[in-house]
């Protein structure tokens, strides 16, 4: 009789394709068998988990995570280290994150930036991790390093910004990055907001003595996002349809432009985040400085916009639902949101409030509890598509026997857990608040399993994994929609053909 390391019986297994009752056997870190429910109840195994008909899904993949980064998004610095961020990730059902290796403007090389990120993450991660290069300075050196990034460093995606003084690239720089990325089969993620319009609106608001956190929303009018999204798509088209992924889309006009480009067959992908599904601009309009807790960019918008973003998730406009976990402590005048509070500005100065929210642990429970996505769609946007987009599929984001790592999240069955109000005290990040305090949650990961090992057992010790168990993942090129095969067929970008 075969012997296994772990068997999970009586689970309702959910993948991006199917929902069906199966037992799962795990050996040597891989899923090795899916069998009819109940058939492995007596299997020879080191550990048996009875899922009691709860959902069993591929572990969450959070593909947009900022950890231990220097100050780049206003004053303040990241509250979570790789240790605390990945601890929070696994308690929220994630088994893989893709974080950023930030190359700042004064740094020439992207390989140096990557080495720095490796040094911070190594032996400090509870879950598996990869890096997107964050390109702040597309110097000739940096661009010349792209082949090595993709071919020997396992980094097949990068992110650039159309905003933030510390990171904003001009259109000619964006084109240089896109072209080099295209030549090396690297997927470019773009933060699409018009930074110049943002600066101008910010000055206008300040001239009118409007400093409170809620004016952050006015300074990030939806037009900033739809204009930059349109420009990013235009730049991609100019370079013979170079694939791009527009991150954290918050508003319907940008979503519509993306949808149009997709319908025209362009390789345009998009991401949204829980803050655009669960928060609105009213959350920034709280008494005193409280609204700063929800300051992120782009900002949460209106209720009608939320509904449009849900629709975009359902209809496939958005390929992934990531957290954009970018945590700053609230009550901290040295590194957190309160760096923007002075005697002159007792409710802060929105210009200086660090942009970003914690959300790595709450992404999956909030989205599942909302019950707005089918179960298969939930898995698709929270795990499987991230694996495909970022070159991890089918090792991650799936449950293929003999192929997929045994990365699983097991939820509580039915009403076993019951509804409860979320509090920050329940979370495992290093942040003194959650923007979702008091929200009703209907389910939570009961077990998180990474390569066959239980690392989160909510009723049996909580975090039971070790911070050195998470491995760096060398990623392949994106397998999403065979984008790079299509690009090869189209041939190289040819300026003479324009
Ligand atoms: N948006 C945020 O809110 N924080 C960090 C980066 C970003 O783009
Ligand atoms: Zn961004």
From TrEMBL:
Chain positions found as N6-carboxylysine: 159
Domain (Amidohydrolase-related): residue spans on this chain: 55-454
GO CC annotations on file: cytoplasm
InterPro entries for this protein: Amidohydro-rel, Hydantoinase/dihydroPyrase, Metal-dep_hydrolase_composite, Metal_Hydrolase, Metallo-dep_Hydrolases_sf
Gene3D superfamilies reported in the protein's UniProt record: Metal-dependent hydrolases, Urease, subunit C, domain 1
Pfam families, per the entry: Amidohydro_1
UniProt keywords, alphabetically: Phosphoprotein
GO molecular function, one term: hydrolase activity, acting on carbon-nitrogen (but not peptide) bonds
Post-translational modification (record): Carbamylation allows a single lysine to coordinate two divalent metal cations.
Domain of life: Eukaryota
NCBIfam families found in the cross-reference section: D-hydantoinase
Assigned protein family: Belongs to the metallo-dependent hydrolases superfamily. Hydantoinase/dihydropyrimidinase family.
Name of the protein in its database record: Amidohydrolase-related domain-containing protein
